[in-house]
Amino acid sequence: MAFEGLTERLQKAMEKLRKKPKVTDADLRETMREIRLALLEADVNFAVVKDFVKKVREKATGAEVLKGLNPAQQIVKIVNEELTVMMGETAVALEKAPHIPTVIMMVGLQGAGKTTTAGKLALKLKEEEHARPLMIAADVYRPAAITQLQQVADSIDVPVFEEGTNVDPVQIVKDGMDQAHANHNDYVLIDTAGRLQIDEKLMDELAQIKELTHPNEILLVVDAMTGQNAVNTAEGFNDQLDITGVVLTKLDGDTRGGAAMSIRAVTGKPIKFVGEGEKMTDLDVFHPDRMASRILG
Ligand code: GDP
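Structure tokens predicted for Signal recognition particle protein (297 residues):
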């Protein structure tokens, strides 16, 4: 189960604190040390942990928390608040185009869950906004990718624009956009190619698609289970493409939590959605406050 180890360790640290009738400076230091270790073990980025611990400590001492009533409870509250801030504070909605279609580019490494997430998002838009999305199959490097997108799209009854694997992806996107305009689709979701790692050719192709479509959203799909790598991937894609948001997938797995907690702080870009399963309905808006409460258990 996700965050299990982290939740357990944070709860232990807090429990110890709660048992004290009075909380001294030394107790606070000890609690902060335990929180620091718990976060590092959960694969949270080192700089992010350092900053987090500093902020909690400042708030806990600055507000004279230790001398007040229920100091332990107040510290728990501060930890919860700062975790929320670290993950972006509030949910961030999808950007919409002033004139249809709103263009959403899905990017990410192979296996992160890009195609699945494109389908989940299309379904969400259909159900919540009665939208009429069009999906564009722009991954021409794996023939199976187009079939997979088609299967996903069929299962949610959304059309796919595809031109096989012998046409340049930028041209496919151009033709797909023409079709979306002609058919008055209100959303276009572009399923771009993924690679096992970031390479120049991939980035160049994505940059060309960006240039062509001026997307309202460039959503990077990353696998939460990959921890620090997810954060590095997010940094890499953001440097090259200036992404607008992140979708964190596989949060239903046994992720330690590092990616969920570091991505916003490291890239400055919000996590907009989380994937919590393989079904088309397993996509949720990311709420930093709810996630903080879930992590704290
Ligand atoms: P792509 O290569 O990035 O397009 O990745 P896919 O969409 O093909 O997904 C790779 C695998 O991850 C598939 O087996 C998906 O069913 C699975 N997957 C995607 N998102 C999630 C998720 O949120 N939770 C779980 N458990 N599996 C997921």
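The two ends are 12 Å apart (CA to CA).
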